[in-house]
Amino acid sequence: MCKAMSELNQPNNMTTTQDFDPDVNQDEEDEKRRLINQVLELQNTLDDLSRRVDSVKEENLKLKSENQVLGQYIENLMAASSVFQSLSPKAKKKSAGKKK
Q1: Can you give the pLDDT of all 100 residues of the chain as single tens digits?
Q2: Collapsing DSSP states into helix, strand and coil, what is residue 11?
Q3: How far apart are CA 65 and CA 38, in angstroms?
Q4: Spatial CA neighbour of 88 closest among 73, 100, 77, 78
Q5: Cβ–Cβ contacts within 10 Å for residue 80, how many?
Q6: Residues near 95 by Cβ (< 8 Å), separated by ≥ 6?
Q7: Under a CB-based contact definition with an 8 Å cutoff, are residues 46 and 54 in contact?
Q8: Is-contact 84 78, C-beta < 8 A?
Q9: End-to-end CA distance of the chain
Q10: CA–CA distance from 9 to each of 4, 13, 16, 45, 59 (Å)?
């Protein structure tokens, strides 16, 4: 029992000025909560932006693929059309070689 009483009478090394001033402690707790909320909000924003970047990348790849298909389709149509064959540089070279 004497040992317990002597421990209670000795100063606690963990005591700070915050323990004596509740305003400082409350202000620091409020600031801590505010900062935690801000960090969580920024994390959510980052997650949202990351998901958006991923979806835009996927859309970009899809559109590139569609553009390649459409480009090939247009080239095939132009090759099959006699109107475009007479205007193409390859056709002019071939026809110029035939006239000589």
Answers
A1: 444 445 444 555 555 555 566 667 989 999 999 999 999 999 999 999 999 999 999 999 999 999 999 999 999 998 888 777 665 555 555 555 555 4
A2: coil
A3: 41
A4: 78
A5: 9
A6: 86
A7: no
A8: yes
A9: 123
A10: 9, 12, 17, 51, 70
Structure tokens at 30: 């409020």
* Residue the block writes with tokens 């859309």: 59
Please state, in angstroms and rounded to a whole number, the distance separating the CA atoms of residues 21 and 96: 98
In the block, which residue shows the tokens 């109107």?
83
CB-CB neighbours of 24 under 10 Å? 13
Q: What is the rounded CA–CA span in Å between residue 87 and residue 82?
A: 9
Instruction: Give the separation between CA 77 and CA 97, rounded to whole angstroms.
Output: 25
Concatenating the DSSP letter of every residue in 17-65 gives HHHH-HHHHHHHHHHHHHHHHHHHHHHHHHHHHHHHHHHHHHHHHHHHH
What amino acid occupies position 92?
Answer: K
Number of other residues whose CB lies within 10 A of the CB of residue 78: 13
